[in-house]
Design goal:
The chain has 268 residues and is an alpha/beta fold. The chain has a single domain, classed as 2-enoyl-CoA Hydratase, Chain A, domain 1 (Alpha-Beta Complex). The protein contains 10 helices and 9 strands. The strands form 2 sheets. The chain has a 6-stranded mixed beta sheet with strand order 1-2-3-4-6-9, sandwiched between helices. Strands 5-7-8 form a 3-stranded mixed beta sheet. Helix 1 links the parallel strand 2 and strand 3. The chain is globular, with a radius of gyration of 18 Å. The mean pLDDT is 89.
C-alpha cells in the first residue's frame, strides 16, 4: 500500500480526493480510509481550495470494503479500528469546513456508500449501482446516516434487504441530489462545484455547521456510537450461510458470493 492509492489533485479552486485502486474497483482498505482522512486534512489547510470532490478512478467510485483486509481479530479491536480509521474518515468528510461532493459512477457499495453519504452533495450517473449489501453476509452500515437522509421506510427497505439501486432511482428517492447520463456526470459535478465556490467562505462554514448540528442534536451522533457497538459485536455471530458467503467472497469476490446467495434462495 502506498500514497498513490488515494490521490490529492487540484484544479483551480477545486480539490479532488481520488480513490485510485482501479484494478480492484477501488475496494477500500483501512489504509485507504486513513489516506482519505489525511487528504481531507491537506485540502482543509489549502486556502486556495473552496470545494472538494470525492471520486473514484476507473470503472467505479468504489465496490466497498475489501473483505481481504481484516480490520481486527476480535470485536473490541474491530470496533477500535472502525471508530479510529473508517468512521474517522467519514466524520472528517461530514464535518469538513469546505463543501464536499461525491461524484458517483459504477459501483458505490457498502463502506464507499457511507463515504458518499457523508458528503454534502452527491451526484451519480444514472447507471451507477448504489447499496449497502453487508446484511447479506452478517454485517451492516457502519456509518448509519441513511435514516436522516431517507427517512424510516426507505432506509429499512434498503438496509434490511441489502438491495442495490440505480443512480436514477437513488435520485428519485433523495439518496443522491442528481442522476445524469454517464457522459454528463463530470459536467454536472463541476457546475455544482462552481455554485458552491461562489458562496462566501464564512457563510458556507456557518451554514454547513448549523445543518450538521441539527442532525446531530436529533440523535445522529449517539446513534453512531450505539450502532458501532452493535455492528462490531455482530462479528461474533455466526451462521452457516454467512460463513459460506464470506468464504466465497474472500476466494472469488463479492460478486460471486452474491450470485451464490441469490441462486441458493431461488431454489427454496
Amino acid at each position: 500500500m502506498n500514497q498513490t492509492e488515494v490521490l490529492i489533485e487540484r484544479e483551480g479552486y477545486i480539490g479532488y480526493v481520488t480513490l485510485n485502486r482501479p484494478e480492484k474497483l477501488n475496494a477500500l482498505t483501512m489504509k485507504m480510509y486513513s489516506l482519505v482522512r489525511d487528504a481531507m486534512d491537506v485540502l482543509e489547510d489549502d486556502d486556495s481550495i473552496r470545494v472538494i470532490i470525492l471520486r473514484g478512478k476507473g470503472k467505479a467510485f468504489s465496490s466497498g470494503y475489501d473483505l481481504n483486509d481484516q480490520g481486527g481479530t476480535d470485536h473490541v479491536e474491530i470496533r477500535r479500528v472502525f471508530e479510529r480509521i473508517a468512521n474517522a474518515a467519514r466524520h472528517k468528510i461530514w464535518s469538513h469546513p469546505k463543501p464536499t461532493i461525491a461524484q458517483i459512477h459504477g459501483y458505490c457499495l457498502g463502506g464507499a456508500h457511507d463515504l458518499a453519504l457523508a458528503c454534502d452533495i452527491a451526484i451519480a450517473s444514472e447507471d451507477a449501482k448504489l447499496g449497502v449489501p453487508e446484511i447479506k453476509f452478517g454485517g451492516g452500515a457502519a456509518f448509519l446516516l441513511m435514516p436522516w437522509v431517507l427517512g424510516l421506510r426507505k432506509t429499512k427497505e434498503l438496509l434490511l434487504t441489502g438491495q442495490t439501486i440505480s443512480g436514477h432511482e437513488a435520485a428519485q428517492i433523495g439518496l443522491v441530489n442528481y442522476a445524469v447520463p454517464a457522459q454528463d456526470l463530470e459536467k454536472k459535478v463541476l457546475s455544482m462545484a462552481k455554485e458552491l465556490a461562489l458562496i462566501p467562505t464564512p457563510a458556507m462554514q456557518l451554514q454547513k455547521r448549523g445543518i450538521n448540528r441539527a442532525i446531530e442534536i436529533s440523535g445522529f451522533t449517539a446513534a453512531q456510537e450505539v450502532w458501532l457497538d452493535s455492528i462490531t459485536l455482530g462479528s461474533l455471530w455466526r451462521s452457516p450461510e454467512g460463513d459460506e458467503f464470506n468464504r466465497i467472497a474472500r476466494e472469488q469476490g463479492v460478486k460471486h458470493a452474491l450470485r451464490w446467495m441469490e441462486e441458493s434462495y431461488s431454489k427454496k
